[in-house]
Amino acid sequence: MIGAITLTALLLAPADTLIFSGAEGQLEVRPAFEAAPDIQVDGRLDEVEWSRAAVLSGFTQYEPVEGIPASENTEVRVFYSTDAIYFGIRAYDSDPAGILARLGERDRVVFGDDWVRIMLDTFDDQRQAYVFYVNPLGLQTDGLWIEGFSRGGGFGMMGGGGVSIDFNPDFIWESDGGVDEEGWAAEIRVPYVSLRFREVPVQTWGIQVAREVKRRGFKQSWAPLTQEVSSTLAQSGRLVGLRDLRSKRLVEINPVVTGTRLGSVSTASGVFERESPEPDFGLNGRVGLTQNLVLDGTYNPDFSQVEADANQLTVNERFALSFPERRPFFLEGVEIFNTPTRLVYTRQIIDPLAGAKLTGKVGSVNMGLISSLDESPSSIGGGQGHAAFNLFRARKDIGRGSTVGILYTDRTAVSAVSPEYNRVLAGDARLVVGGRYTLTGQFAGSVDRDSADVEGSGVRPMARMQVQRSGRSFSWDVGVTDVAPGFRTRSGFVTRVGETEANAGITLTRFGRAGAVLERTSARIMYNNFFIHDEFWDGVGPYESEVELWPTFSFRGDRSVTFVLRNGYFRFQPDDYGSYALQAADGSTLPFVTPEPLRYMKAWGFMPRMRITNNLNVNGRAFFREVPIYREGGRGYEIQAGPDVQYRPTDQLQLALNYTYSRIRRTDGALSETVYSTVHQPRIRVQYQFNKSVFARAVIQHELEERAGLTDPATGLPILIYGAPRPTVSTGESMMQFLLQYQPSPGTIFYVGFSHARAGERTYRLRDMAPMAEGLFVKLSYLFRM
Q: What local confidence, expressed as pLDDT, does residue 383 receive?
């Protein structure tokens, strides 16, 4: 399509009454209705219907400088029919050769390319909206914008940040585009059957359109955006007077056939053995009971995951790590189950046999119900057996942008001799005050019972409160989370139990003039404290705290660098070392003495984000910090580096190199200046995109770890845990994966994947490692939409 579009494709200039300028506040749009449009979605705006469409123009910049005229002109045309809504994008560009438009995998490509994003708030309730991105070639990324939702995280011991979009849901819609001498253009068709909206004769939808010119890092929007207002959706425009929207009833059937051949080391012989090929069958189905109430069902859902979860350092971690959900059945309607604390984490349902789900909106109430039978060894007491999950969520809209909700989760071991269960009941609220302030609260209680606790645990409470102030130059947030000892959510994911967290943050931002080299300077100051729950209520100070300063400098051309400065404190807990003892020189055992608190733990680091050329990006992180060595109870000094290089030599080939290096050196007592651990984690990812639907990908990743035997920092004596020493660890692991995938649309997919894992010596030489696991995977699924 490149070079195929010209301005003459626009047959007629629109009448003044059809132009709606966002900069001039013309945000109420009455789009044209076309009973039977003859539109071929090919990226060419050459059909006569586009000349009668409403035109959204007058875009203004919102990053890096708010409110100034957009650097490049954009026009978005919109009209609707009885079964779909259409958008025609004309993105002008003064330097068409600089437009970033490459082939890539669905849901990922726009993060490195130019894009236009359309947001549709089909309930006009300013709480969530459908998100549709296209790059200049018409490649798709979609998801849900959810006010109050944050996906992302920070670096260091603590930290935060994130975005308000959940990219996991996939919708079926059409798009195509191309680049020409004036910029680029795209066409989008979104069928109503892919959307949920109210069943009323005349509709009003919220709409927002945004665009990023990637090489400059400029973002612009049709309806002006400012950080002075906490809600993004509250700043949207409106599509008004939508009539005769006749969506057909949603009926989808999605059979899935898989085949696997696995290999592993036999527990009996210790020899690597390959199993016989094993076919499997699963079935997903969806029925729209109403336009906004959908019933989903699944039998034997496939995990749909060939590429392994991304590497995360675990050598000095105290808490479990979470990974994203990937199974389509659990992703549909997942936004309804979001709460301020993560009390629903569907990857706790490890091996579901079958499940049913009801999600949608009735009046002003969003509701969701999930029931699933898990075949994994999942009795609450840790034994063998099946577990039944029942999750219910309801959230009611209040006013403009505020909500209150309830959540109930029940995980019961159905095959246990005596009833074993975990149940959680929670209520939450998100209140928007004055457009700038957001108050979020949640209260929950859990009840546990297993075979060893006949009477049950009683109610164990959890509470969370947070207040946020939005602002362009000045914002702040304050929060408290209190989790009582014994609180459990075996359907969710809460890492710190029996603790109270209090945190506060202030962000100051200064903007440069338009066109300046230094576009923006910001500084975030965070103060985080963690208390033992009972000590907090007794007035005892925190066992862990830190003050962090994060200054960020953003430069012209989408380049930035963030620095991190930290001062921290950590107090070791005696209960964590109850199984510890020391081994004296004569072989006798001595008691382990809980170490003294670590004070004034300094740290500094930086995180660059550099666009070298349109084809080469270099990001990464480097930290130099004092840390607690949790397993020994000592002070350590860690050097951690993580370069991330992304290279696109052609529009179809992608190369990514990620490398994580960590070395922790002891700095206290008898072990001072000795190395505790060294970890290397290189990862290479190569992907070739044949066309929009077909790609091949190869991944190679290693993890080399060397960790010293556990030794008491004060005496230098070996540490015994339950009477056994923990010797030096020196290991290497290697994993190789290959995937060939064809996916023309969500739900329809064919792939062949192969993975091979080896382990052994701490070396990159594969011949010195023994095979540990292997898998050959084949999957075929087809989505039938009736």
A: 55
The pLDDT of residue 323 is: 66
pLDDT for 456: 60
Query: Would you state the structure tokens that stand for residue 569, as one six-digit string?
Result: 């404190």
pLDDT at position 157? 29
- Structural domain of 456: 333-472+480-495
CATH number assigned to the domain comprising residue 218: 2.60.40.1190
Domain presence at residue 705: yes
Instruction: Give the pLDDT score at 124.
Output: 93
Cβ 107 vs Cβ 115: under 8 Å: no
Structural tokens at position 440 = 């979020």
Query: Exposure pattern of 420-450 as b/e (b: 16+ CB <10 Å)?
Result: bbbbbbbebbbbbeeebebebbbebbbbbbb
Query: What DSSP string describes 660-707?
Result: EEEEEEE-SGGGTT-EEEEEEEEEEEEEEESSSSEEEEEEEEEEEEEE
Looking at residue 222, its pLDDT comes to 97
Do 526 and 548 form a contact (C-beta atoms < 8 A)? yes
Cα(461)–Cα(458) distance, rounded to whole angstroms? 10
User: Averaged in consecutive runs of 10 residues, what is the pLDDT profile of the chain (786 residues)?
Assistant: 42 67 96 93 93 96 89 96 96 94 86 94 93 96 85 35 74 95 96 92 96 92 92 94 89 92 85 90 92 91 52 55 73 84 89 91 92 76 75 93 94 76 95 91 92 70 95 94 93 92 95 86 96 95 96 91 97 93 92 94 95 92 95 94 95 94 92 92 95 94 94 92 92 93 92 92 87 92 91
Cα–Cα nearest to 776, from 95, 414, 259:
259
Contact call for residues 115 and 91 (beta carbons, < 8 A): no
82 and 207 in a single domain? The answer is: yes
Is 176 in the same domain as 89? yes
Does residue 411 lie in a domain region?
yes
Q: What is the pLDDT of residue 464?
A: 96
pLDDT of res. 512: 85
> Using CB atoms within 10 A of its CB, is residue 419 exposed (0-12), middle (13-18) or buried (19+)?
middle
Q: For residue 453, give Cα distances in angstroms to 114, 448, 458, 560.
A: 58, 9, 11, 54
Give yes or no for a contact between 697 and 686, defined as CB atoms under 8 angstroms apart.
Answer: yes
d(CA 135, CA 185): 9
Give the residue from 200, 224, 243 where a domain finishes: 243
Q: Among positive and negative, which fits the CA dihedral 378, 383, 385, 390? A: negative
Extract long-range pairs of 451-456: CB within 8 Å, 24+ residues apart: 451/379, 451/381, 451/383, 451/416, 451/417, 451/418, 451/420, 452/381, 454/418
48 phi and psi, to 5 degrees?
-65, -25
Residue among 211, 239, 198 nearest 86 (CA): 239
**Pairwise CA distance, residues 127 & 403, whole Å:** 9
Which residues 6+ apart lie within 8 Å of 743 measured at CB?
Answer: 106, 693, 749, 750, 751
Burial class (CB in 10 A: 0-12, 13-18, 19+), 143: buried
Position 153 scores a pLDDT of 37
Taking the alpha carbons of 255, 166, 123, 345 in that order, is the dihedral positive or negative? positive
